[in-house]
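lol forgot to send this yesterday, sorry. struct tokens for the thing we talked abt
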């Protein structure tokens, strides 16, 4: 037994291999068409450009070939949309945050949009498993007349598999600048006894899925009433100073998507979610 204990102690000291990924994409306007300027990918970060002639903008699909993240993993995405160009970004699948032995996974997203440019940041949902820990930040630097639609959705375990999240951690930080000025900041953070916290009525009231949506544009007031009609009692939305912000709460991932997809289409003037969102 002492020998086995010594071996166990020795293996505990061996650092675990961590996933690292870095993806960069830059696009430019060529008349009415958006074209790729630069693409860089490193580690487990991959970027693909599917041909979807029905879409009004160029689409990029971001892939984490590691299959998910856990404590100590690092992912970084940087997007540069030059003046007059338009880019929609999504992910190949839901990002999965697995149980962490120690530390947090980190995902950083940096968006830059030039004059008259448009970015739709539409990743699929993040699934937080029991014991998972994630620190994520979204930073956007927009020209004064650029347009941004940003969505982040979180599912606490897979209810269809009867999974629950008892403990875990999520830190989500958004910082949006327009014309060089900070116009939106949001910090969402919870941790520890997640089951007890999310059971509270002011938090999720027992629900297992939620989403945040932000639209930055000059014409946001015209979207407010149509969006509220889509949300019903599952979410709330406010428009102020060229920004529309919304949060949605649903009992599980499927219920969330049934609300989220028409909400995104509403904010995209009827254009549906990218095809990779298809169930």
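and heres what i got for the seq, position by position
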């Amino acid at each position: 037994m002492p020998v086995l204990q010594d071996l166990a102690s020795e293996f505990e000291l061996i650092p675990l291999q961590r996933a690292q990924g870095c993806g960069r994409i830059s696009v430019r306007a060529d008349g009415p068409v958006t074209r790729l300027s630069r693409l860089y990918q490193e580690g487990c970060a991959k970027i693909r450009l599917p041909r979807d002639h029905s879409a009004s903008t160029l689409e990029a699909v971001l892939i984490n070939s590691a299959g998910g993240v856990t404590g100590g993993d690092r992912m970084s995405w940087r997007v540069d949309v030059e003046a007059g160009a338009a880019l929609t970004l999504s992910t190949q699948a839901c990002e999965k945050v697995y149980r962490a032995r120690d530390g947090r996974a980190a995902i950083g997203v940096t968006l830059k949009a030039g004059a008259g440019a448009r970015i739709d940041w539409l990743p699929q949902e993040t699934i937080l498993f029991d014991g998972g820990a994630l620190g994520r930040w979204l930073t956007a630097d927009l020209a004064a007349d650029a347009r941004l639609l940003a969505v982040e959705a979180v599912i606490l375990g897979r209810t269809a598999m009867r999974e629950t999240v008892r403990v875990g951690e999520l830190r989500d930080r958004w910082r949006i600048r327009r014309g060089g000025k900070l116009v939106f900041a949001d910090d969402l953070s919870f941790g520890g006894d997640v089951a007890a916290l999310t059971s509270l009525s002011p938090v999720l009231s027992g629900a297992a899925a939620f989403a945040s949506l932000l639209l930055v544009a000059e014409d946001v007031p015209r979207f407010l009433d149509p969006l509220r009609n889509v949300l019903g009692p599952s979410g709330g939305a406010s428009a102020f100073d060229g920004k529309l912000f919304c949060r949605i709460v649903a009992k599980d991932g499927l219920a969330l998507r049934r609300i989220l997809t028409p909400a995104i289409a509403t904010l995209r003037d009827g254009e549906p979610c990218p095809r990779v969102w298809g169930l």
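The chain has four helices and 17 strands. anyway ping me if u want another try
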